[in-house]
Structure formats: structure tokens, C-alpha cells
Design a protein that fits this description.
- Helix 5 (104-115) links the parallel strand 3 and strand 4.
- This protein has helices at 4-16, 19-25, 30-44, 60-88, 104-115, 128-136, 190-200, 213-221, 265-276, and strands at residues 49-52, 55-58, 90-96, 119-125, 142-148, 156-160, 162-167, 178-182, 204-209, 227-230, 238-240, 250-256.
- It is of the alpha/beta class.
- It is built from nine helices and twelve strands.
- The strands form four sheets. Strands 4-3-5-12-6 form a five-stranded mixed beta sheet.
- The protein folds into three domains: 4-87, Winged helix-like DNA-binding domain superfamily/Winged helix DNA-binding domain (Arc Repressor Mutant, subunit A, Orthogonal Bundle); 90-159 and 252-276, Periplasmic binding protein-like II (D-Maltodextrin-Binding Protein, domain 2, 3-Layer(aba) Sandwich), CATH 3.40.190; 162-248, 3-Layer(aba) Sandwich (D-Maltodextrin-Binding Protein, domain 2), CATH 3.40.190.10.
- It is rod-shaped and about 110 Å long.
Length: 277
């Protein structure tokens, strides 16, 4: 194999037509450069440099090697530059609830990546409690979650008003036992929904459970049951139910990784600002 270090010395000697000048350019000594040329010649099995009295010139074999040597060194430098750039890339682990994983937030993420091409985003979508647990365990750098007001301090907060909804063609609120569509146990709104009905003395039964917001919305639209949801996700096909118990608003919160973590704080802060905007 032709070692890049030997090829670099060979090219320097050929271009400078001098061992002394090549040594100075490579911050080495003349004897070291001579030894490297000898080692390269041993590897090639032929003489590469003609040390004639008129000056240093490549032999015929040396002339053939010059083009390959330059290409090998160029590829070596290119590979080194690419890997050095990859080492500077930053992977940001972001957690988003399903209803925020598209639309304006996705557009904000696209703008962020365009402004920061060294940043790579790994986005995890799921239930807010799951995302916050991953964040707390150090598996996510930034999360946008929904939580009860004041449950945990965060970087930014917004109110999340809740309301009761049913399908546009049903009057399920008139039933004696209210059929409920809900997220799984531990999912947001489920405890608030059942606790509010229990406090009112209203009978209820779970008829449909889904971990997907789209599944919950489809079930309500199809008339399977009613649910407690943020007003902003209900859409035009669901109808807000009157005379239902009031429930405290939730809040939307951005939680950011520990600011003492090396290299992350500034880029995480910029991502948080983009999402907040």
C-alpha cells in the first residue's frame, strides 16, 4: 500500500525539485524526506526519483505515480474533511405530542434545519407523559408537552383550554350513561374527564380507547362517544357540548435540557425559540 505520508513527501520533492525545499515545506529534515522516498521506492519496487546532477526529476515510473499520488492524497483530504465535519454535527432529540408533529411546528423545524445545516433532528412522537418521562431520564433534549398547570417548570408556557365534544350528528349528552372516548390509562384528559363526571354524579362508561389523537377524533365523529379535548384540535366536524362540567385548562410547556450540558445549550435554545414562535 502507498502510505499517504510517503506520497505527500514524494509530491513535495517532485514539485520543489529539491529535497531541502520539500523538507522545509513539510517542516521536516532532508534526511527524513530522503528516507521516506526510499521507503516509497521499496514499496513500489522501482526507482521514482532520479537524483541527477542537473537536479531532482521523476523517473518514468515516478511520472506515472504522480497523478495517482495526487488523487490518493486528494481523496484522503476529502475523507478527513467530511469526517471532521460529521464530528461537528449535532443531533437534537425532540419530543412532540402527535397533534404537534405536523403543520406549523413541522414548518418551524424545516426552517430551523435550513438555518442550521449541521443540526440533525430526531423527533419522537407520543403521549405527553411518556415524552416527559423520556426527557426527565435524559433521552430527549427538548420536549413540547401538555401538562396540568404548574405541574413542572418549563422554558415557555401557554394555556390549553379544554371542552367536551361529540359528533355533529349525535346528541349523546342526553343519554343517561355517557359513553366516553379516551386515551389509555395515564393519558391526558382521561382522569380530568372521569373525575369531573364523578363530581357531578353523572354515570359514564368507557366505550373506546386509543393512543392516537386521530383515532380519538374519528371515534367521536363516528358517534361512538364523547370526550374532553383541547378546543384547538376539535375541528369543524365535532360539536362542543353545553351544560357539561367545567374542567381546569391544561398548559402547553417547552422543557429544555440541562443548560450545563456541553455544546448543546445554544442550539437547543434556538430550536426552542423556533418552536415557540
Amino acid at each position: 500500500m502507498f502510505k499517504p505520508d510517503l506520497l505527500r513527501s514524494f509530491i513535495a520533492v517532485v514539485d520543489a525539485r529539491s529535497f531541502t525545499t520539500a523538507a522545509r515545506q513539510l517542516n521536516s529534515t532532508q534526511s527524513t524526506i530522503s528516507q521516506k522516498i526510499m521507503r516509497l521506492e521499496e514499496a513500489a519496487g522501482v526507482r521514482l526519483i532520479d537524483r541527477a546532477s542537473s537536479g531532482i526529476i521523476p523517473t518514468e515510473a515516478g511520472e506515472r505515480l504522480i497523478g495517482y499520488a495526487r488523487r490518493i492524497l486528494a481523496l484522503n483530504d476529502e475523507a478527513s474533511a467530511v469526517l471532521a465535519g460529521a464530528a461537528r454535527d449535532v443531533t437534537l432529540r425532540l419530543g412532540l405530542p402527535e397533534d404537534f408533529a405536523s403543520g406549523p411546528v413541522t414548518q418551524a423545524l424545516a426552517g430551523f434545519v435550513q438555518r442550521h445545516p449541521r443540526a440533525r433532528l430526531e423527533v419522537t412522537s407520543g403521549l405527553s407523559r411518556t415524552l416527559y418521562r423520556l426527557f426527565r431520564d435524559g433521552d430527549l433534549d427538548l420536549v413540547l408537552v401538555k401538562q396540568p398547570r404548574g405541574a413542572a417548570p418549563g422554558l415557555r408556557h401557554w394555556p390549553e383550554p379544554l371542552a367536551w365534544f361529540q359528533g355533529a350528528t349525535q346528541r349523546l349528552d342526553a343519554l343517561d350513561t355517557l359513553p366516553l372516548v379516551a386515551f389509555p390509562t395515564g393519558g391526558l384528559y382521561r382522569h380530568q374527564m372521569t373525575a369531573a363526571l364523578d363530581a357531578l354524579g353523572r354515570k359514564w362508561r368507557l366505550v373506546y380507547t386509543s393512543s392516537s389523537l386521530a383515532g380519538v377524533l374519528s371515534a367521536i365523529d363516528a358517534g361512538l362517544g364523547v370526550s374532553l379535548l383541547p378546543r384547538r384540535v376539535a375541528g369543524s366536524r365535532l360539536v362542543e357540548m353545553p351544560a357539561m362540567p367545567q374542567v381546569e385548562p391544561m398548559e402547553i410547556v417547552i422543557h429544555q435540557a440541562d443548560p450545563d450540558m456541553p455544546y448543546l445549550p445554544e442550539i437547543v435554545r434556538l430550536l426552542a425559540e423556533g418552536i415557540a414562535e
